[in-house]
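Quick one: structure for this chain?
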Amino acid sequence: MMLWPAVTLLGFLVLTALVIAMGTQSTARYEREREERSTNSRHAAAEAVGAVRA
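Got it. Here's what it folds into:
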């Protein structure tokens, strides 16, 4: 009698955990790429004014 509500609740919790995990990975990837873009643009701006010498 309580089997289907328990299965439904378990499925909901599993799917919620999956969505959270996917969102966390996507956010981490976005933050990493954003940091790389800002670092590259700062480096390029510094080179444009001659502040960085390689």
